[in-house]
Design a protein that fits this description.
Layout (H helix, E strand, L loop, with lengths): L8 H8 L7 E7 L5 E8 L3 E7 L7 H13 L17 E3 L2 E7 L11 H18 L12 H11 L5 H15 L8 E4 L8 E4 L2 E5 L6 E4 H12 L9 H14 L4 H27 L13 H12 L1 H4 L5
Antiparallel strand pairs: 1-2, 2-3, 3-5, 4-5, 6-9, 7-8
Helix pairs in contact: 3-6, 3-7, 4-5, 4-8, 5-8, 6-8, 8-9
Length: 316
């Protein structure tokens, strides 16, 4: 689902008056956003992305904007927020908090191969390592407490089988402590549409607005559950191993992470099943441009449960 706020050319011109980036050439809406409103904004000098934040408040945004500045300075190919003439990263457009960031080259990959997955895993490890020097923290707002809070609200709109699956998985996750695993800044949403490639060269990582402080392995699991699966939700062995090896080459996994791998894969599937259920059945006010199927991650969760005994074998 995308909540879409209209931005006119006059709005964009007024915004650019706060910067030294040249005159407006074009403004084009991006319909694929999930949490935010996005526009491609082109000036005489360069290309940018204008983001209006539909959920995040102005008090939350300094974390994300400063994180992207930090990562860009650490040679991570991510959008760099633009500072205005007063040195401010955070703007206001149509009464919404907003930012203007550099636009990266490349395009997303719908059908990645092992080489793509290896590059994504390696870059994810570099993000984790670079984030270790970032001096701000943010708790994960969509962790276990969030799942438990939403479950009673979702129950009336689910089938009895899905209610049982949701309740049992929340109970299962509560039995495991993941806090002892290596932790730090995570992207938390590294799906295929948030990574750009030029051929097989990774050219950009975008959409850091779910970033938070959490278990690094959880971030790896989120990524594997999107990049390394067959249409039925089962894991592709070659792509999974390529991604894990790419990560391990930059930030070697510790022994404790191997044991937690099946649990974390299930947690990552649960998180996105719950969020898609909530977005589908309890949409926000605004213009809905599309909704993603929550059953996709329900099926992934079922697959991880059914193959749990084999998941530890899928390791570097």
């Amino acid at each position: 689902m995308s909540v879409f706020t209209r931005v006119s050319e006059s709005d964009a011109i007024a915004l650019l008056n706060r910067f030294d980036l040249g005159k407006l050439v074009s403004l084009q809406g991006i319909a694929s956003g999930i949490e935010n409103t996005n526009y491609f904004l082109t000036t005489e000098r360069n290309q940018f992305v204008l983001t209006l934040f539909e959920l995040l408040g102005a008090d939350e945004l300094p974390f994300f904007l400063n994180l992207m500045v930090h990562l860009a300075e650490q040679s991570i190919p991510c959008p760099r927020p633009m500072a205005d003439l007063d040195g401010l990263l955070l703007q206001t457009v149509n009464h919404k908090p907003a930012s203007l960031v550099s636009r990266l080259s490349g395009h997303s990959i719908e059908f990645p191969d092992e080489q793509h997955c290896h590059a994504v895993g390696n870059m994810l490890a570099h993000i984790h390592l670079a984030g270790a020097q970032f001096d701000m923290q943010r708790d994960n707002p969509r962790a276990a407490t969030w799942w438990k809070q939403l479950a009673p609200r979702l129950a009336p709109v689910l089938s009895s089988d899905d209610v049982t699956l949701l309740q049992e998985e929340i109970r299962y996750q509560s039995l495991h402590r993941l806090q002892d695993l290596p932790r730090g800044i995570i992207h938390a949403d590294l799906f295929r549409d948030n990574v750009l490639f030029d051929g097989h060269a990774l050219s950009g990582i975008i959409d850091f607005y779910f970033a938070c402080t959490d278990t690094w392995l959880y971030d790896v699991a989120i990524t594997v559950n999107d990049w390394c699966i067959h249409p039925d939700g089962t894991l592709d062995h070659g792509r999974s191993m390529a991604l894990l090896q790419g990560y391990h080459n930059a930030r070697p996994f510790v022994a404790l992470e191997r044991g937690a791998w099946p649990v974390v894969l299930r947690a990552a599937a649960l998180r996105f099943w719950v969020s898609r259920l909530y977005d589908l059945h309890f949409p926000r006010d605004g213009e809905i441009t599309h909704a993603k199927d929550p059953n996709h991650f329900r099926d992934i969760l079922r697959s991880r449960i059914e193959t749990q005994s084999n998941l530890r074998r899928l390791w570097v």
